[in-house]
């Protein structure tokens, strides 16, 4: 065990959990109507709790167990069987590696929340998220990070998929799942209401930015120069994408909005994620500069050309950003086109199939969408019996 590595990953684990609680909760919560903000908070918090338990029960074992088929890790480490305080994973206590990866298993299904806010049943959120994490996310983790079929020496060649912190594993899977659910769910009855609290959006985005240092820097799994470089390029990409998004918004619409500026931040962070362990500062500037415009145009296509109500633009920002960053690894010669494209296609197809099947199956168990009256009145009071704001008190 290396003490410095261990200390850094303890901090990184806290930072990644901070991304979901409270970062993502505030970012998403500020974008919805005032009558739905508590439902977003409820979804984020409940998913964090449920995924933590399921990661212990089976998720970690599926992702990082000793399975030899290349498809999944098996159940040999279910309930952390055989893992104690003295077990090591590289230079880290394995229990710490478990906890660090658990925070990724929390935020990935939590990202999908943005596609279905304001109209989805709470029972569906928890049931779908639980099954999706175990049956879609955890196997993909094994394929790429757990030594499975897409890693080095796997089905895509000696040089496998390069995905440092989750361009495919986190952002492509969550983005595609979000898009599919949005299509199946159908649009909200009222799509024109502006964000109820842009201040929440900015604060949440700022928390995500800070937490992303743990997300990308922690993925080095060591306290060394590689972690420092990953943090630096993450910051530069986020800063550049924020400005290019705002500039493009100013050119197209005449005004640069604060919500647009910080959405560009998230686009830059998502895009640099897969490449953050491989690229340098100048390459990060390029990735961020393109991401701010590319993801904004993706928002326009999905919303206005395809008329899909991916409410908080999960696929356009996270999905497109993660895919773009994954391809830039090959463009910069830091991975092979075969592995990068092959990984995107295989994981994309698997995610689509699993997501569609799970939505159909879970909808037989619990309603997918709330009724019209509940949607009109808002989920906070109708589903959870609470209001975020009591103006009379």
List keywords for this structure.
393 residues; mainly alpha; Ammonium transporter fold; two-stranded antiparallel ribbon; 13 helices
| Structural domains: how many | 1
Order of helices and strands: HHEEHHHHHHHHHHH
Q: What is the average of the pLDDT values?
A: 97
Outline: globular
Gist?
It comes from Ruegeria conchae. With 393 residues, the chain is mainly α. It is 69% helix and 1% strand.
Protein model, in words:
The protein is an all-alpha fold and 393 residues long. It has a single domain (3-379), classed as Ammonium transporter AmtB like domains (Ammonium transporter fold, Orthogonal Bundle). Helices cover 69% and strands 1% of the residues. Strands 1-2 form a two-stranded antiparallel sheet. β1 and β2 (92-93) form a beta hairpin. α3 (94-116) runs parallel beside α5, α7 runs antiparallel to α8 (258-272) and α10 (314-331) packs antiparallel against α11 (337-365). The longest helix is centred in the N-terminal third of the chain and has 29 residues, at 3-31. It starts with a helix and ends in a 9-residue tail after the last helix. The model has no long low-confidence stretch (mean pLDDT 97).
């Amino acid at each position: 065990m290396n003490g410095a590595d261990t200390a850094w990953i303890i901090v990184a684990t806290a930072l990644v959990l901070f991304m979901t609680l409270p970062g993502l909760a505030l970012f998403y919560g500020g974008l919805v109507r005032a009558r739905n903000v508590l439902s977003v908070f409820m979804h984020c918090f409940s998913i964090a709790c449920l995924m933590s338990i399921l990661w212990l029960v089976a998720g970690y074992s599926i992702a990082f167990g000793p399975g030899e088929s290349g498809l999944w890790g098996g159940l040999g480490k279910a309930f952390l069987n055989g893992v104690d305080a003295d077990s090591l994973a590289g230079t880290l206590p394995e229990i710490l590696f478990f906890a660090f990866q658990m925070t990724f298993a929390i935020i990935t299904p939590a990202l999908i929340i943005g596609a279905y806010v304001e109209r989805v049943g709470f029972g569906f959120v928890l049931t779908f998220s639980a099954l999706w994490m175990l049956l879609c996310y955890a196997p993909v983790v094994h394929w790429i990070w757990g030594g499975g079929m897409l890693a080095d020496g796997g089905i895509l060649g000696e040089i496998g998929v390069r995905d440092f912190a989750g361009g495919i594993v986190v952002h492509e899977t969550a983005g595609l799942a979000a898009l599919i659910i949005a299509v199946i769910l159908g649009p909200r009855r009222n799509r024109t209401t502006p964000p109820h609290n842009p201040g929440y959006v900015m604060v949440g985005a700022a928390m995500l930015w800070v937490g992303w240092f743990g997300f990308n820097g922690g993925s080095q799994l060591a306290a060394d120069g590689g972690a420092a470089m990953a943090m630096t390029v993450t910051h530069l990409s986020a800063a550049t994408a924020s400005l290019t998004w705002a500039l493009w918004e100013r050119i197209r619409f005449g005004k640069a909005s604060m919500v647009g500026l910080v959405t560009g931040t998230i686009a830059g962070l998502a895009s640099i994620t897969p490449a953050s362990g491989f690229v340098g500062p100048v390459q990060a500037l390029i990735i961020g500069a393109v991401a701010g415009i590319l993801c904004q145009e993706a928002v326009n296509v999905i919303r206005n050309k395809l008329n899909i109500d991916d409410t908080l633009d999960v696929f356009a920002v996270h999905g497109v950003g993660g895919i773009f960053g994954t391809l830039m690894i090959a463009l910069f010669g830091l991975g092979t086109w075969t592995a990068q494209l092959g990984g995107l296609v295989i994981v994309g197809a698997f995610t689509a199939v699993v997501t569609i099947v799970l939505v159909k199956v879970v909808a037989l168990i619990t309603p997918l969408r709330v009724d019209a009256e509940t949607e009109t009145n808002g989920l906070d009071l109708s589903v959870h019996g609470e209001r975020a704001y009591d103006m009379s008190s």
